[in-house]
Amino acid sequence: xxxxxxxxxxxxxxxxxxxxxxxxxxxxxxxxxxxxxxxxxxxxxxxxxxxxxxxxxxxxxxxxxxxxxxxxxxxxxxxxxxxxxxxxxxxxxxxxxxxxxxxxx
Length: 105
Known about the structure:
With 105 residues, the chain is of the alpha+beta class. It has a domain at 19-69. It contains two helices and two strands. The chain has a two-stranded antiparallel sheet with strand order 1-2. It is elongated and about 70 Å long. The model has no long low-confidence stretch (mean pLDDT 78).
């Protein structure tokens, strides 16, 4: 991705991958929400043998891309169940406890 299609010159000392800018500038071609593997190798290619003084191919780094959800404050009740859901949960726990006492013990 980028002006060099992922090829970075050997003289580069850093690479900045700004996925936010990419998403903003390419709304019709968004990055997929998935797990990716970063593959790094030198000009000998990904299948080159180990050799002293040369870059060893590496594909050990995995990362995920996702689109964050909008912020919900605690005061909006995001962490609390409704009364109906709490009563259902308590009823389930009571029923399970009663079953355990009557049939297991």
